[in-house]
């Protein structure tokens, strides 16, 4: 059980906007514990020092820019797969063994098209790869904004990730894979 955290136990703590989350008998449920931890972490939190925010922003910017910079150095493969071979990587073993694209087949090619501004070809090549390229660009821009301004913008990002978001991302990845398998077989 999490210890109570309110202004009566910690005179220096800011009062919470809601009472502590406690279930019957004083035990927190798993959901209640997660909600309590999230509330304590974000409620009234200043987002850390400006220097810390800028460093985190720089890390996010570099993580977003990295794959995009690599993609600019690659020429998109005309078949929609195998662009990664230009990086010295082996051919897709799944594709070789089963004549079926793996779940990430075409993502490098999709990134290579996306960085050239050809989002339609990127989406046709590998829809999820196109979404990841756009997400990388957004992360880079947001990270650069935080690095330059010291903004607290990254402070809200963890709030956007909730259990259903994982299911949505997984579902989009699966749909993209089914699309890639269908297009590889000439069904689409």
Low-confidence segments: 5-10, 17-28, 36-45
Oligomer: single chain
How many β-strand stretches? 0
**Share of helix among residues?**
55-70%
Query: Which sequence of SSEs, written as H and E, runs from N to C?
Result: HHHHHHHH
Radius of gyration: 22 Å
> How many helical stretches?
8
Q: Please report the distance between the alpha carbons of the first and last residues.
A: 54 Å
Biggest sheet: strands, sense, closure?
none
Strand composition percent: under 5%
Q: Roughly what is the average pLDDT, rounded to an integer?
A: 83
Shape: globular
Structural category: mainly alpha
- Domain module count: 2
Tag the structure with descriptive keywords:
188 residues; mainly alpha; globular; single chain
Q: In words, what does this structure look like?
A:
It is a single chain. This protein has eight helices and no strands. It has 188 residues and is mostly helical. The chain has two domains: 1-45, no CATH class; 49-184, no CATH class. Helix 4 packs across helix 6. The longest helix has 23 residues, at 50-72. The radius of gyration is 22 Å and the shape is globular. The model is unreliable at 5-10, 17-28 and 36-45 (pLDDT under 50).
């Amino acid at each position: 059980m999490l210890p109570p955290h309110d202004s009566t136990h910690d005179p220096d703590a800011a009062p919470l906007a809601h009472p502590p989350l406690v279930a019957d008998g004083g035990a927190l449920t798993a959901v209640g514990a997660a909600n309590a931890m999230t509330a304590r972490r974000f409620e009234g939190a200043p987002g850390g020092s400006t220097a810390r925010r800028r460093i985190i922003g720089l890390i996010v910017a570099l993580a977003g820019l990295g794959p995009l910079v690599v993609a600019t150095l690659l020429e998109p493969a005309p078949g929609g797969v195998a662009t990664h071979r230009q990086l010295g990587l082996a051919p897709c073993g799944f594709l070789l063994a089963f004549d079926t694209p793996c779940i990430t087949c075409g993502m490098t090619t999709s990134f290579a098209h996306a960085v050239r501004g050809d989002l339609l070809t990127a989406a046709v090549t590998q829809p999820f790869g196109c979404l990841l390229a756009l997400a990388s660009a957004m992360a880079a821009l947001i990270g650069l904004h935080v690095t330059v301004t010291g903004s607290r913008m990254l402070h809200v990002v963890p709030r956007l990730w909730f259990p259903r978001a994982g299911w949505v991302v997984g579902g989009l990845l699966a749909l993209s894979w089914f699309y890639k398998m269908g297009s590889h077989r000439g069904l689409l």
